[in-house]
Amino acid sequence: MTRKILVALMIVASGLSLASGLVAQQNVTIEIGQSLYLDCVPPGQPGDIYYVIQQSDIEAPQPIDIGDWGCNVDAVTQYRLNSQFTLFSAPFVVNADTSDFTADCTSADDYGTCAPNSSLTLGDVDPNTRRGTGYNTAGTDGADFFGNVYVNMGVGPAGWDVMSSQLPVFVTGIITYTVTDTTP
Amino acid sequence: MRHIKPVAVVLLVLSLGGVGGLSQTSQTVTINVNQSLYLDCSASANITYTVTQADIEGPQPFTIGTWGCNVDSLTNFTLSADMTMTATGDVVNASADDFSETCTSASGGGSPSCGPGGTFGPITLGTGGNTAGTLGADFSGNVRLNVSDWDVRAIPPTRSVSGIINYSVTDSTP
To answer: Do B56 and A36 form a contact (C-beta atoms < 8 A)?
Structure first.
């Protein structure tokens, strides 16, 4: 006796709607330990200043240009760049002071802007000591700031009075550059 | 002389089940498919990334991690992703569209192919078809970040941005 077998194939989709799908998750955490990077002696930019006063410097209009400064800033925030003396010594030059020194900013790129202020005086504050400002530099090699350093040896009784018995004499100091986050 | 009379032999073959008199039984088979798509993105490990000076100086966006998903399917499908930010208070302008994904590999069953990816969201990472008989379709790629418009609040403390990337697979059968 032969039996015929009826096969019915039905596909029933139940449960999840065909219009929706399955979901998986991946957690992402981005940490920023430092939002500003400052390099004031990068390749190709000026380093320490060593200047010898000449007769022509004494004769020239004051202040005189004694050297350059330059800084590169990498930032993921808005910032200001300042500089001023943090150490100074002139034991054999009467009236020599950090207020005799000034700096300007002559160029800035990659969203950096020069500030007009020029003070390098030890203990002075922003904005007097501000060299420039800037914003996020991501995707660039950073904002490059350049400028000059000047000294005014003064004139008359308030000017420098070098103790000639101590020649050669040295006026030394350290200019410290700082970059500060200015995000409100 | 004896005559042998031929005897006609008629063979009647009776076919059981023929016309008339047929006897039948039946067996019903039902296949139940509760789920036509299975998504496994366990290859997409959680990402914790510290932005470096080189990342800031380098081209934007930059790679912060990878993702990978496997799809088992009895239907045509689309693999998608989107991102939800969970903490952005430390960084002004941080948002999901600073993050992006690319699909760099699609292999396995169902003729998978990479989608365009892009910035979140949502974005299409890949497509494929029926993968039966294989270990499924494997998709993978990179997770990327662009910090060009970020304004990070003063450090210390260390600042952070966090979010969740959601992967989904949907039936694209017309």
So the answer is: no
In angstroms, rounded to a whole number, what is the distance separating the alpha carbons of residues A86 and A70?
Answer: 18
From chain B, the residues in CB contact with A34 under 8 A are 53, 155
Is B139 part of any domain? yes
Residue B22 lies in a domain: no
Three-state secondary-structure class, residue A27: strand
A85-105 per-position pLDDT tens digit: 999 999 999 999 999 999 999
Helices (H), chain A: 55-59
Q: Is residue B41 part of a domain?
A: yes
Q: Which residues of A touch B49 (CB under 8 A)?
A: 28-31
CATH of the domain at B72: 2.60.40
| pTM metric for this prediction | 0.80
ipTM metric:
0.82
- B64 neighbourhood in chain A, CB within 8 Å: 28, 30
Among B152, B155, B164, most A C-beta atoms within 10 A, so best to mutate, is B152
B25 part of a folded domain: no
Q: Which of A3, A36, A183 sits opposite B25 (nearest CB)?
A: A3
Alpha carbon distance, N-terminus to C-terminus of chain A: 93
Nearest CA in chain B to A180: B154
Q: Chain-wide mean pLDDT for chain B?
A: 89
